[in-house]
TrEMBL record:
This is Uncharacterized protein. It comes from the Bacteria. Residues 181-213, 228-260 are annotated as: Disordered. Residues 185-206 have a biased composition (Polar residues).
Length: 260
């Protein structure tokens, strides 16, 4: 479904010729350092109707981790599950809600895999429901001096993992309480946001935080990649045009000299 939606996700530009999947993958592997951090991880995110019972949510960014390799970003078992697509770079940020009672880390893993590998991993996660397993939760980024300072592995409450197929990226979130309390019944965002869910992640809205932030960062990543791709193609087209004009000018000059 994600692969089929690619034409709509780079989208919105009305172009009859969307960028090729090869171009998209190539640009995605550079966009993490070419796009301003405020575009990739906005200072604030608004979730209209994204909270429990349809309440509005507002999340504020409180920390951005230095870009890094994937070492330490995932528990060993999740790292093993993601290993087939490789790791080029991992970028992360942590947000808190309007009341500073919940914290959520969001990460964008840029892979080294091609479309075939990303589709295979996506299919495996769906078929085996790996994104619902509590032993495959991502790790949080606990920034010192912030509301997330006590956000460790034992505080993880809800999470979401999205394996993209139209770009070499894995986007994930993991949420918990800002007061550092341990969570004994973690639940995936998909389960925690179902009607009638009674777990603490569900009732506290931590599942909503994990889902809402993941959706917004994914949408922002796609917009940034779309703009970056269009800009790069426009630049390449301009350079090609200038080169062509220069060649024609040179050819005309040589022709005149030969005639004279």
């Amino acid at each position: 479904m994600l692969g089929g939606a690619a034409a709509g996700s780079w989208l919105g530009d009305g172009s009859d010729t969307p960028p090729s999947i090869a171009d998209t993958y190539a640009h995605a592997r550079t966009v993490w350092y070419s796009v301003p951090v405020d575009d990739l991880f906005p200072r604030t995110l608004r979730g209209k109707g994204e909270g429990p019972g349809g309440a509005d949510r507002l999340w504020t960014r409180i920390a951005v981790a230095p870009d890094s390799s994937c070492g330490g970003g995932f528990d060993p078992l999740l790292a093993k599950a993601l290993a087939p697509v490789g790791c080029k770079r991992l970028v992360r940020a942590t947000y808190t809600d309007a009341t500073s009672t919940s914290v959520t880390t969001v990460g964008v893993l840029i892979t080294t895999s091609g479309p075939t590998g990303m589709r295979a991993l996506h299919q495996r996660f769906v078929a085996e429901k790996l994104d619902e397993r509590s032993d495959l939760m991502p790790r949080p980024y606990a920034a010192k001096g912030t509301a997330a300072a006590g956000f460790g592995d034992e505080q993880r409450a809800s999470w979401r993992i999205r394996i993209l197929t139209d770009a070499p990226a894995v986007i994930y979130t993991v949420s918990g309480f800002a007061d550092g309390r341990k969570v004994t019944d973690p639940q995936s965002a998909g389960e925690a946001t179902q009607r009638g869910a009674t777990s603490s992640p569900a009732q506290s809205g931590l599942g909503n935080d994990a889902r809402g932030i993941a959706d917004r960062i994914e949408a922002g990543f796609r917009r940034a990649l779309s703009i970056f791709t269009e800009s790069s193609e426009s630049s390449e087209s301009s350079e090609s045009s200038e080169s062509s004009e220069s060649s024609e000018s040179t050819g005309s000059s040589e022709s005149t000299e030969t005639t004279s």
